[in-house]
Amino acid sequence: MSAGTADGATTDAVTDAVTDAVTTVDTPQPAPVPSGVRIGPLRAGERITLTDPKGRRHSVLLAEGGTFHTTKGGVSHDALIGGPEGVVVTSVGGTAFLALRPLLNEFTVTMPRGAAVIYPKDAAQILMACDVFPGARVVEAGAGSGALTCSLLRAVGPTGSVRSYERRDDFAAQARRNVESFFGSAPEAWDLTVGDLVEQLEAEPEPRPVDRVVLDMLAPWECVDALAERLVPGGVLLAYVATTTQLARTVETLRVHGGFTEPEATETLLRAWHAEGLAVRPRHDMVGHTGFLVSARRMAPGFTAPARKRRPAPGAYGEDYTGPRAAAPAEGSARG
Ligand SMILES: C[S@@+](CC[C@H](N)C(=O)[O-])C[C@H]1O[C@@H](n2cnc3c(N)ncnc32)[C@H](O)[C@@H]1O
User: Fold this and answer.
1) What is the DSSP letter of 62?
2) Distance of alpha carbon 87 from alpha carbon 53, whole angstroms
3) Strand-strand pairing, 279-282 and 96-100
4) What is the number of other CB atoms lying within 10 angstroms of the CB of residue 277?
5) DSSP characters over 10-29
6) What is the DSSP letter of 263?
7) Beta carbons of 171 and 11 less than 8 angstroms apart
8) Residues near 71 by Cβ (< 8 Å), separated by ≥ 6?
9) Does residue 220's CB lie within 6 angstroms of at least one atom of ligand 1?
């Protein structure tokens, strides 16, 4: 797994080799489910993961009469359809494959992608930092490959809404395919708009209230004013950014706006462990960097957050500093 670039418009390599075993057999889609989680017997039209003895994962769309071809012979889909997941199937050449439905975190790192995706460790933090709740009205941009969209849709559930904006129509089409593949069809709670976030918001006849905003784009600071007009008091705005310069610009822009609480910036490091007999140690292949989260909460109209008690570090805003500059707010002062 690797981090996205500043604009995220790259295709990352996935650590596990994932082969998409495309089938040419026409097959019905199983009924959509709001959570994207299917239980019970495996059905034609479902995507499963076959893991070989070397740990390589192969994504397979089950089809009646279909075959997953490997260099060690084929695996018949019919040997899986109608049975439970968590079974081992053997290819004609004798290789054993573990068959499981992918969890959401596996789906998002193995699904086809145009833009770099938000990885599960960051998606989990985003849901918690934003406190995304069932019924929440969420705005997201850019949709990219739709990885975060899947997590947001699951968190808001059928009573909430996720409005996703993506300015590249090829990425939007990929996001749509991925979301439809995970949930079985596009959830009713989802609205995907192709276009620039701010332009699209400003083109709306009436600003629609929003509870939570998640931005994963090159220049989130450009969207702060338009989103502040729509965020409810107490609502959360969060930006996921890849570089420290983006982090700094986002933090300072939120401060200068004045209608947000003091921004918080974090990053999450996840270290997997190898545990085998006496060899218990961190794994060697830790992902060093993905991105930073910057979040702040919307104040009620007319209020600014109380002035910070701590003075900035000496030189923080010295003559070399060229970014947005907050005027020292008078405590309790009102802002439109
Ligand atoms: C890194 S990708 C997003 C990936 C996505 N979060 C996911 O998990 O799959 C960033 C996307 O933001 C889009 N983007 C950048 N600026 C935008 C804007 N102002 N309005 C809408 N989309 C924008 C880019 O086209 C790109 O697809």
Assistant:
1) -
2) 14
3) unpaired
4) 5
5) S-PPPSS-EEEE---S--PP
6) P
7) no
8) 93
9) no
Residue with the nearest Cα to atom 11 of ligand 1?
A: 142
What pTM value is reported for the model?
A: 0.88
- For the CA of 171, the nearest atom of ligand 1: 27
Alpha carbon of residue 145 to chain centroid: 9
- Are 324 and 245 within 8 A, CB to CB? no
The pLDDT score that the predictor gives to residue 14 is 36
| Residue bearing the CA closest to ligand 1, atom 18 | 196
Q: State residue 163's pLDDT score.
A: 98
* In the chain, where the domains are located: 18-101, 106-297
Tally of residues, the chain:
336
Residue of the nearest CA to atom 26 in ligand 1? 144
* Cα 147 to averaged position of ligand 1 atoms, centre (Å): 11
Q: Name the CATH code of domain 18-101 (choices 3.40.50.150, 3.60.15.10, 3.10.330.20, 3.40.50.980).
A: 3.10.330.20
Sheet with 264-267, strands from edge to edge, namely 190-194, 161-166, 137-141, 210-215, 231-241, 292-297, 264-267
Average pLDDT along the chain: 89
Q: Around Cβ 84, how many Cβ atoms within 10 Å?
A: 11
Cα–Cα distance for residue pair 242/253, rounded to 1 Å: 17
- Atom number, ligand 1, closest to the C-alpha of residue 214: 6
Return the closest-CA partner of residue 63 out of 20, 22, 25. 25
Contact 185, 29 (CB under 8 A): yes
Query: What pLDDT digit, counting tens, does each position of 258-275 carry?
Result: 999 999 999 999 999 999
- pLDDT tens for each residue of 21-49: 444 345 566 788 889 999 999 999 999 99
Quick: pLDDT tens for 287-309: 999 999 999 999 999 998 887 77
DSSP letter at 77?
Answer: G
Nearest CA to ligand 1 atom 24: 142
Which of 1, 7, 225 maximizes ligand 1 atoms within 8 Å of its Cβ, making it the mutation to test the pocket? 7
The domain defined by 106-297 folds into Rossmann fold (3.40.50)
Pocket test for ligand 1, best of 153, 216, 243, 293 (most atoms within 8 A of CB): 216
